[in-house]
Amino acid sequence: MHWLDELERLKQTGATAARPFITAAFAISHDGCLTRTRGESTLISGPESQRVTHQLRALHDALLVGVGTVLSDDPALTTRLVEGPSPLRVVLDSRLRVPVTAKLLSSTSRAAWLVTSASVSGPKGRALLDAGADLIQVPASAGGISIPVLLTVLATSGVRSLMLEGGAEVLESFFRARLVDYVALTVSPRRLSNPCAVSLGSCTSAVLAEWRARSRRTELGADLLQTGPLSPPEREPSWVGQRLAAP
């Protein structure tokens, strides 16, 4: 079975009323870096891997990143390299730091969600609304927003599959809470630095260390794509009553 067929089959049965099926799809360098310089964009993977990323976007109802990704990369987060729909773009932005000029606010006719625990009635909130954003308020947690509440909101809104692209803090929150169902990890042959400017969190690294030994491996140009479900899958909402930190 091709790994995309496996993913599609799991997506069809994995979503619950409490939360979507969640795929973590991201790239790291050979020495485990997510970026060379903190706060700046670093292109890690090759064109073949980037095409797969866009293919995954088209296969998911929604795509989630942290505000740090928007501030450093200013991504559109659309599906451009393959045919298919662009997902709902969701940004965790507890303090409304996304600039009104961000590409994701004007790149499609579908409004991006900015998920925040801040007041949305102030000048910045009104400016983001005028720029085309949908502001989604959720309860605050230590250092961020309540991920469980957000997942319930997404599920209630009809989102059955969610793709995580980063950054490190977002991935760590989801891996630590055992909310990730499937992983598509691109490993580039490039070495960025040692130590890394930004590397994976301790829980993410520990989970992936075990998972990578049994993952499916596919060569994509110079990159290595590792795919597969996490096992055992955590389908019960073990996070009920918890509030997880996110940007």
Task: Throw out a few tags for this protein.
disordered C terminus, nine-stranded mixed sheet, 13 strands, globular, alpha/beta, 7 helices, Dihydrofolate Reductase, subunit A, two-stranded antiparallel sheet
Strand content: 15-25%
What is the fold named in CATH at topology level?
Dihydrofolate Reductase, subunit A
Gyration radius over CA = 17 Å
Q: What is the assigned CATH homologous superfamily?
A: Dihydrofolate Reductase, subunit A
The major β-sheet equals:
9 strands, mixed
**Number of DSSP helices?**
7
CATH top level is Alpha Beta
Q: What would CATH call the architecture?
A: 3-Layer(aba) Sandwich
- Along the chain, the helix and strand elements come as HEEHEHEEHEEEHEHEEHEE
**Approximate shape:** globular
Count of domain modules: 1
Give me the count of strands: 13
Pick out the low-confidence regions: 232-246
Let me know the average pLDDT: 89
